[in-house]
Amino acid sequence: MILRPKPSPCHNTTLAGAASAAPMATVPAWLRRAIPDAQSLAGKDVEDVALAAGATIGALDAVVRRQEKWAGAWRQRLALAGAAATARQAGRIEDEAALRDAVLLTRPGDFSSVGPAGSMLLAWRRLAGTPAEKLLTEAGIGAVLDDLGLRRDDDAVSDLADDLRQLSSGIGMVGMLTGAFAAAERYGFARAFRCWLADALLAQRLGWVHAVPLLGAEAALGTSARPRRSAASSVATGIETDPERAKSLLAAQARAALRAIDLSAELERRADRLLAVAPKLRAKAAGLVVERLLSDDAIVASERIAGMSDRGLRRLFDRLVEFGAVRELSGRPTFRMYGL
């Protein structure tokens, strides 16, 4: 069982105010040691791995419930990592920089030309940015299958949505994780989609407003033959019938959660710096730019924000770089991108 702290009440603070008073996320050394890698998994019992996974997800839950100003950028940075791993698994050569270019250098709202790899990033950005309650509807499932370039049948999508509704309540966390993979395998869907489903189910189970992309970037995930029984009926006995697979998935989830926690601490430090220098910015739309930097992976320097000219926005970004508050992410002299 994961004990979830109640969300802290929201305070009406401005961007110019002090950074979050909450402490940065930390993971105790004993928990880091308890999370097995792929090589040490064989010597672990499934109960021990489940305990480590539960404790790590509990620590991640505490980060999510702080509802920090930088949480949007955090989730989108994790989405980018998941998309890069998805592209590699599909045999593509695009790295994180190329995926960022494919999506952010398109015209606003026009994603028809992002290409197959760019669509993979859209799938993970959809997971990070869509309210969790809408992710596992038939429309949500169909949309992400389209993003991932997977063939879909409307009847299969409807049946899968029914299976997922059963998984979202009345089943333990271990059964829910293994069941998400079993449900996707039953209909022949690829690994990336299984990871996407598991992350969405976790968010719904824990009551998060938005999902946190976790498993997409985890390379070491076990596989098994497609289940012959329905996913819902096989979930309850998933540990007993396939403990090795349960261990593999739980360990992967724990490692992914730990990476997400570590990234949150890194981005919190960067966000604190950005919020500290915000009062020094004189541009009229500086507050909106800061909000965008806190809510997304990156901003294109030529983007239209509150009527700012290209030159004005570039000057603002140059000043933020001088302050050490943001980084230029593209490495190019033109079509530059900035983020935490």
Q: Please, could you describe this protein's structure?
A:
The chain has 340 residues and is mainly α. The protein folds into 2 domains: 44-266; 281-339, Winged helix-like DNA-binding domain superfamily/Winged helix DNA-binding domain (Arc Repressor Mutant, subunit A, Orthogonal Bundle), CATH 1.10.10.10. It is 57% helix and 2% strand. The chain has helices at 29-34, 46-65, 71-89, 96-104, 115-129, 132-135, 138-147, 154-167, 173-186, 191-206, 231-235, 238-241, 243-277, 286-295, 310-322, and strands spanning 299-300, 327-328, 337-339. Helix 3 (71-89) packs antiparallel against helix 5 (115-129). The radius of gyration is 21 Å and the shape is globular. The chain starts with 28 loop residues before the first helix and ends with a strand. Mean pLDDT is 85; it is low at 1-22 and 222-240. InterPro entries: DUF1403.
The percent of residues in helical segments reads 55-70%
Number of strands: 3
Classify the secondary structure makeup into a structural class.
Answer: mainly alpha
Number of alpha- plus pi-helical segments? 15
Name the overall outline.
globular
The number of distinct structural domains comes to 2
Largest sheet: 3 strands, antiparallel
Spatial strand arrangement across the major sheet: 1-3-2
- Mean of pLDDT: 85
Cα(first) to Cα(last) distance is: 34 Å
Rg for CA atoms: 21 Å
Strand content: under 5%
The helix/strand series, from N terminus to C terminus, equals HHHHHHHHHHHHHHEHEE
Give the uncertain stretches in residue-range form.
1-22, 222-240
Organism: Aquamicrobium aerolatum DSM 21857
Protein name: DUF1403 family protein
InterPro entries: DUF1403
